[in-house]
Fold this sequence. Notes:
Layout lengths: L1 H13 L1 H23 L20 H7 L3 H26 L6 H6 L6 H36 L4 H33 L5 H21 L13
Helix pairs in contact: 1-2, 2-4, 2-8, 4-6, 6-7, 7-8
Amino acid sequence: MSKLFSFYKDSLRQRPLVTNIITTGLLSGLGDVIAQKVFPPEDACDFPIPGTLSVSVSPEEERNLSFNYARLGRAMLYGGFVFAPIADKWFRTLNKIQVPASTFRTIGIVPTPKITAVVNTISRVFVDQAIFPTVISVPIYYTALTLLEHKSFEEAKKKLRLNYWPTLTTAWTVWPTIQLFNFGFVKVEYRLFVISTVSLGWNCYLSFMNGKKAPEKHVPVQFP
């Protein structure tokens, strides 16, 4: 394990973008695999098709038959080539946030290194949660995944309207505590890896939400 981590550190130092693309893509894919196993796709065939032979299959076989490999590929593509570069740049930008010492003196607080570090961390978490999920990660996720499914931009907007608020409120209950730890104790170059690792569960949730379908409107048929 120590050799693997040393290899990762060396790779991150020499090829940071490529390393983040590969690791984030793989972890995003793993999250989608878990999502599909726990929450099978809604469009899986759960009824007999007319004109075909009905064959009884075990629950395990049914799960395997309903596995969506294209969806897995889209999750890995999004995680590696869309989310990873954006998030890495975002975390490095957040790290530049420093509360001026004059601000502490204005309110009568001596800016010791410990107090400064705590306030800087809280400030970064606040800015992160106010901006990143609201206008970056959540909108881009649903838009990119829908377009990767070869659907129209109008369909992407519909999916975003359906899932935006539930996803955002869930993010606000999950990520602030994790980001307090991440910004407070983890070096900036490793923060994306921490997020990607914790995101195994989060990616499972996102994949489940993205696989949901909007409720169909049933229009009554009127006969003459």
